[in-house]
Design goal:
It is a single chain. This protein is mainly beta. It has a domain of 331 residues: Methylamine Dehydrogenase, Chain H. The strands form 9 sheets. Strands 1, 2, 3, 5, 6, 9, 10 and 40 form an 8-stranded antiparallel beta sheet that branches. A 5-stranded mixed beta sheet has the order 22-26-25-24-23, with no helix packed on it. The longest helix is centred in the N-terminal third of the chain and has 61 residues. The radius of gyration is 31 Å and the shape is globular.
């Protein structure tokens, strides 16, 4: 009997122990399941926080007011929210990335290449980004050796174009990393996203051999000198971050940016011709205009040859391109500004405008507009003589896709007196003319919705005068932002425009205010920017944690 009682007691203990173990196991499983559920619910919170960090980083890098904008190298943000926090900083690696390589295989204007082969792929951001070839914007997903893969083209409002073998492939990109933690303390989930942002750069040229660059990779949000020599520069035209042209006084002097350095060159044209205006529609062609030589116009053209020589300039007539003097007086043949457009995407201008004329006052018009039709430059009509159009200094035109442009803008002096100027527009065959309070020197316009019409524009002139206008040519101004004469303007967006002038003044317009970013030194005569026109976002990557 006692043995039976002992056995039953032992069995009872065993059963109790088994139930205890099962209970502990069930409790442990429940706790683990609860923790897993908590961790699982934290993942989307961490993802949302990382996305919010990217939004914050984009804002910090692109604030319209330069005083509020962070540099790429100095990008820093820590924000705490009820669900956790996010931190934003430059991604690991070279930041920002300012690099170029040479295109190994030509790209046609039609179709999208599966890949882009370059001479050195290691210089570019490996995880994807944006590059410029000529003026066209390409995006890629990955770099494999010397091959950029996952290509999309004609991004950021650019146009598909032909690109020759040997063209430069240009990149300026900031890669930022955003890390989201949920919750902030002892996080159950962490997500890291990286995003590439195309960076802006601005170039200005002037007397005393001055060429300046704003926002270089080693001197962000500031100006620095790139001066190649003592040429008296009058104008500048940038193609991308690593290609551009500037022209100067005295025997048709030119400078070319090819890579990271400017090279000087003096073409052998007859006579002592000053060059006043320059425009490059692509990496394959550039045009310049200047002072007349006797009764001759000065219109010169550079075409890329097999060796990509800087010396391949010719004075028209040459290479099948001609100039007609019909309808122009000999005193009208000084030219000061030029604009060209390539709308069939072969890399060469199909249409262009060169402007100038005779100085002084008097009845009627003294300005001149020469129009290029792909083969010949010839005089074109002006607004009626009652508008008193004097010497014309500036011109800009709106690209119209694969069609001829229908919206062109000009600025000039007035022939009525020496204190006034003109701002005028040609749209679909009709003229609109505004008399300004000072002679005007430069005009720049942008088309924000790609309909072939300017939605916003600016014109600048003597006595620090600025005018702005909208798509209906409703003109605002004058606003005087400086005591110096203003010589150049480049409108990149409605919240990003640059103005330069005498005394080395450099202004930035942020959509509401004109802010002086530099002054002193030589007079500045031209400005040209390279930046995203619609959105700077160039890549996105999920870094698994």
């Amino acid at each position: 009997m006692k043995r039976q009682q002992g056995f039953l007691s032992l069995a009872t203990v065993v059963v109790i122990v088994i139930f205890a173990i099962l209970s502990a196991t069930l409790v442990s499983m429940f706790i683990r399941a609860s923790a897993y559920t908590v961790n699982l619910s934290a993942i989307p919170k961490a993802s949302a926080l990382a996305e919010s960090g990217l939004e914050q980083g984009r804002a910090n890098l692109t604030e319209p007011a330069l005083a509020d904008r962070q540099t790429c190298a100095g990008l820093a943000n820590l924000t705490s929210l009820p669900t956790g926090n996010f931190t934003v900083s430059p991604a690991v690696g070279i930041n920002p990335r300012y690099a170029f390589a040479t295109l190994s295989t030509a790209i046609a204007s039609s179709g999208t290449p599966a890949s882009i082969t370059v001479t050195d792929g290691s210089v570019f951001v490996t995880g994807g980004g944006r590059v410029l070839i000529g003026r066209e914007v390409f995006q890629y997903q990955r770099v494999n050796g010397n091959i950029l893969t996952g290509i999309s083209r004609a991004e950021d409002g650019s146009t598909s174009a032909s690109h020759p073998e040997g063209a430069l492939v240009s990149q300026y990109q900031c890669n930022m990393a955003s890390i989201g933690n949920a919750p902030a303390n002892n996080p159950q989930a962490t997500r890291e996203y990286q995003q590439g942002m195309q960076q802006p750069a601005v170039f200005a040229a002037g007397s005393g051999g001055t060429i300046l660059r704003w926002n270089s990779p080693t001197n962000e949000n500031a100006w620095e000198s790139m001066s190649p020599g003592a040429y008296e520069f009058n104008a500048i035209s940038m193609i991308n971050y690593h290609e551009g042209w500037a022209v100067a006084d005295t025997q048709a002097r030119v400078a070319r940016l090819q890579g990271n350095a400017w090279t000087l060159f003096q073409p052998s044209f007859s006579g002592n011709r000053d060059l006043y205006g320059v425009d490059a529609p692509s990496e394959s062609e550039a045009w310049a205009v200047g002072s007349r030589q006797g009764n001759e116009f000065t219109i010169v053209r550079w075409v890329r040859d097999g060796s990509n020589s800087i010396a391949n300039w010719c004075l028209l007539p040459c290479s099948g391109k001609t100039v007609s003097t019909s309808g122009t007086g000999s005193q009208q043949r000084d030219l000061f500004g030029i604009k060209t457009l390539d709308y069939n995407n072969d890399g060469f201008a199909d249409i262009g405008w060169a402007v100038g004329g005779r100085d002084g006052t008097g009845s009627g018009n003294r300005g001149i507009i020469m129009v290029y039709d792909g083969a010949q430059w010839a005089s074109s009509s002006l607004p009626p003589a009652a508008n008193r159009i004097g010497r014309i200094y500036g011109v800009d035109a709106v690209a119209n896709g694969n069609n001829p442009p229908v919206d062109v803008y000009f600025v000039s002096r007035s022939t009525q007196n020496n204190t006034q100027g003109k701002l005028f527009r040609w749209r679909n065959g009709s003229w609109s003319v505004v008399t300004t309070s000072a002679p005007m020197h430069s005009v720049s316009v942008i088309d924000t919705n790609n309909d072939g019409l300017a939605d916003f524009g600016m014109a600048v002139g003597d006595n620090g005068v600025v005018y702005s206008f909208d798509v209906n040519f409703a003109v605002s101004g004058p606003i005087s932002i400086s005591g110096q004469d203003l010589r150049g303007v480049d409108v990149i967006s409605t919240t990003n425009a640059w103005i330069v002038g005498n005394g080395g003044v450099r202004f930035h317009y942020d959509g509401s205010s004109f802010v002086l970013t530099g002054s002193g030194g030589s007079n500045l005569n031209g400005v040209s920017g390279v930046a995203a026109r619609q959105s700077p976002v160039s890549s996105w990557q999920d870094v698994f944690n």
